[in-house]
Each structure stands twice: as structure tokens, then as C-alpha cells.
Automatic annotation (TrEMBL):
Protein name per UniProt: Purine nucleoside phosphorylase DeoD-type
Positions that bind phosphate: G20, R24, R43, R87, I88, G89, S90
Keywords: Glycosyltransferase, Transferase
Taxonomic superkingdom: Bacteria
Positions of transmembrane segments: none
Organism: Pseudosulfitobacter koreensis
Family matches, as CDD domains: PNP_EcPNPI-like
PANTHER family on file: FI09636P-RELATED, URIDINE PHOSPHORYLASE
Designated gene of the protein: deoD
Keyword Glycosyltransferase recorded: yes
Active-site residue list: D204 (proton donor)
Length: 234
């Protein structure tokens, strides 16, 4: 047990999927895993362990934002020896060719600050995905026919942004979408020599103002979960 995860040491798998929303962790575990067992409910941040095609997987909520994800990812890596960590979550689209429901496989995750920024001082560290996971996710997405974009995303500290000038520069520099967790996950994985990736579903669009209707969310998020699972065990 750790401060924030109540699972026994052998109750967490080496492969962990991390949605921000603990209820989505429960939905994904019930939908895609066999024999899913609740292994954590400290602070309501649900975690489940089961198997997918015979492979052991944990699906553990990360909460919203990099400080929250940092707590769970640190404990999963340092105390439970998680080797492969894949964020599954939603993001806001930032390019005209990126549509609602499309999947983004995040090659890099830019930030202004993250819980790790302090250690880099003047350096602009570039958090990046594990290439093997990234390539496997792209192959899985292509095989399913899911409309998928691969490139840079932005990990923000705020959902309600007040910097149109910053958005403009990101759009200009090809950033595909915005979310709030991946940069810290990539940085922690690099530090501890683990594999990390973020597979995201576009749930809203900053330019068009469109948003995914609630009833469509499950199917779109389901594609993302299966892409993540296929990548993890490719
Ligand atoms: N996650 C989903 N949509 C988002 C947005 N527009 N900004 C930040 N995080 C998000």
C-alpha cells in the first residue's frame, strides 16, 4: 500500500492504463477486462486489475491535471514497479483537420510548467512517448480504421484558458490537441526508464466549439481503450 493506492503489491499489473476519470476506469475495466477486481478506492480514485487476452492489466484513475497524475504515476512506478503506463483520456482539438471523435497518439507533450519543470531549470525539456508503444498504437489504430493523428500535444494546467495568443502559437506550430496530464507522465517514465504513451479521443474543439455528445462518448472512448491495450501487448 502507498499513501494514495490501497492495493497490495501483487494486485497491480506491470501494464497500467490511466484514465483521468475514476468512473471511466470502472467502465473500461468492466467493458474490456476479464475478471476485473477493484484494487484501489482510496479517495475514490478507482483502480481495477484483470486480464485482456490473457495479459494482466490495471486500469487506475489518475485524476485531472499533472499534480494528480504525478502522485499516481510515481507510486505505480516506484512502489508497484509498473513498466508500461498509457494515459487514455480526452482532449480538445486544436487543428482544423482534427475532428471530434478522432484519436490522437501523442508523440510529444509540450507544457509551460509541470510538477517536474523545477528540476530542469533553464532547459526546455521535450517530453516524448515511447517509440515502440507509439508505433504499435498507430498500427492498431490503422488496422481498426480509426481516424488517427500522430504528433505533438499540449499539456495545460488549466481547462479554462485565458491565453488566446498562446493557443495561436500552438496552432501555428502544429499542436494537435490540448489535455492536462501527458507531459508529466512522459517525464516520469523517462526518469524511471519505463514506457509511456498517451492515446486521446478528441472530445471538444477549440476552434469550432463542437463537443462530443454524451451518448457518443462510450463508443469513441472504447476505440481508444482497445488501441491502448493492443499497443501495450504488441
Ligand atoms: N480535455 C478535454 N478537452 C480539453 C480542453 N479543451 N482543455 C484541456 N483539457 C481538455
Amino acid at each position: 500500500m502507498t499513501v494514495h493506492i490501497g492495493a497490495k503489491p501483487d494486485q497491480i499489473a506491470q501494464t497500467v492504463l490511466m484514465p483521468g476519470d475514476p468512473y471511466r476506469a470502472r467502465w473500461a475495466a468492466e467493458t474490456f477486462l476479464e475478471g476485473a477486481e477493484l484494487v484501489n478506492e482510496v479517495r475514490g480514485m478507482l483502480g481495477f486489475t484483470g486480464t485482456w487476452k490473457g495479459n494482466r492489466v490495471t486500469i487506475q484513475g489518475s485524476g485531472m491535471g499533472m499534480p494528480s497524475l504525478s502522485i499516481y504515476a510515481n507510486e505505480l512506478i516506484r512502489d508497484y514497479d509498473a513498466q508500461t503506463l498509457i494515459r487514455i483520456g480526452s482532449c480538445g482539438g486544436m487543428q482544423p483537420h482534427v475532428g471530434i471523435r478522432d484519436v490522437i497518439v501523442a508523440m510529444t507533450a509540450s507544457t509551460i510548467t509541470s510538477p517536474s519543470s523545477g528540476i530542469f531549470r533553464e532547459m526546455n525539456y521535450a517530453p516524448c512517448a515511447d517509440y515502440g508503444l507509439l508505433a504499435a498504437a498507430v498500427r492498431a489504430a490503422e488496422a481498426r480504421g480509426t481516424k488517427t493523428h500522430v504528433g505533438g500535444i499540449y499539456s495545460s494546467d488549466v481547462f479554462y484558458a485565458e491565453r488566446p495568443d498562446l493557443d495561436e502559437q500552438m496552432v501555428r506550430h502544429g499542436i494537435l490537441g490540448v489535455e492536462m496530464e501527458a507531459a508529466e507522465l512522459y517525464t516520469l517514465a523517462a526518469r524511471h526508464k519505463r514506457r509511456a504513451l498517451a492515446v486521446l479521443t478528441v472530445s471538444d474543439h477549440l476552434q469550432t466549439g463542437e463537443a462530443l455528445p454524451a451518448e457518443d462518448r462510450e463508443k469513441s472512448f472504447g476505440d481508444m481503450v482497445e488501441i491502448a491495450l493492443e499497443a501495450a501487448f504488441a
